[in-house]
Design goal:
It is a multi-pass membrane protein. There is one protein chain. The protein has eleven helices and four strands. α8 (133-146) runs parallel beside α10. The chain has one domain: Rhomboid-like fold. It starts with a helix and ends in an 11-residue tail after the last strand. By secondary structure, the protein is mainly alpha-helical. It has helices at 5-11, 13-32, 36-39, 43-47, 53-59, 64-77, 89-117, 133-146, 165-176, 182-196, 205-226; strands at 151-154, 158-161, 247-252, 255-260.
Length: 271
């Protein structure tokens, strides 16, 4: 008999949080009747500046089957959090999850760009992708390289050798979810191999927090620019207060003198 669920959650804190977030987002999407076009990522929306969709598409699921498959696989892959002795662990898991979310999304867009611009396949311009599959396939690949003896458990009864799991799952999802994005899953596998083989490396808490900060900044700015959400409270107004010091250059022959006028009260406040 396995461990109680409570103890498994404690052993996989990051995985448990991500599953909770994805499930809560799925519930909200169902309640608000949100569709693919509202949260999904496509080439067309990306060139319009909707970069925030790289994030929303990764954590959003429309189909309950899609959600269950991804979360079931992710729960099994949560064993990565317990493999600190192999150089993995919770910190590694969180750091490279950020990398997988961003780079797999960018790689998908890059593939679409080549297919559209080089091969004139306009069909890919409007394909909209959603789901955590890119990240799931990335972690399958990393675990297959780092610990090939592991098993991937799906739905609590289907067990696959992790060595072949990425490609077996690629076929499996194409059968049970015909609308599954082949290129999306493939991008996760490619980025997963790049991380596992050390082509992408050097992540630590500093770089992870820096990346997270840039993600948040680009997310908010692109969300505001696209007009998808009203963010007028972020407007930055120009300051024309005459009480602020002025700076000017005074010419004197071949030289220049910098003159700064003082504030009337001599005080500066930063709010």
């Amino acid at each position: 008999m396995g461990k109680p669920l409570f103890y498994e959650i404690l052993e996989k804190p990051a995985t448990s949080c991500i599953i909770g977030i994805c499930s809560a987002i799925w519930f909200y999407i169902q309640k608000k009747n949100i569709g693919y076009s509202h949260v999904g990522l496509s080439y067309e929306t990306a060139i319009e500046g909707h970069y925030w969709r790289i994030i929303t598409s990764a954590f959003s699921h429309i189909s309950v089957i899609h959600l269950v498959f991804n979360m079931s696989a992710l729960w099994s892959l949560g064993v990565i959090e317990e493999l600190g002795h192999l150089g993995l662990g919770v910190g590694y898991y969180l750091q490279y999850t950020l990398v997988l979310v961003v780079l797999s999304g960018l790689l998908v867009l890059g593939m679409y760009h080549i297919l559209i611009q080089r091969f004139k396949l306009e069909y890919f311009r409007r394909i909209t992708a959603v789901g955590y599959s890119c990240v799931v396939f990335g972690w399958m690949t990393i675990l297959a390289v780092k610990q090939p003896s592991s098993k991937l458990d799906l739905f609590g009864f289907l067990s696959l050798p992790i060595s072949f799991a990425p490609f077996e799952s690629l076929v499996f999802t194409s059968i049970i979810v015909p609308q599954a994005s082949f290129l999306g899953h493939l991008s996760g596998i490619v980025i997963g191999y790049a991380i596992a083989w050390g082509l992408i490396h050097g992540m630590n808490n500093y770089w992870a927090l820096s990346l997270l900060g840039w993600i948040i900044l680009v997310f908010i700015l692109s969300l505001k620019r696209s007009g998808a959400v009203d963010l007028n409270f972020l407007e930055i107004e120009s300051v024309t207060d005459p009480s602020f010091p002025s700076v000017r250059f005074l010419g004197s022959g071949n030289g220049r003198t910098l003159q700064i006028s003082a504030l009337p009260n001599g005080n500066v406040e930063f709010v």
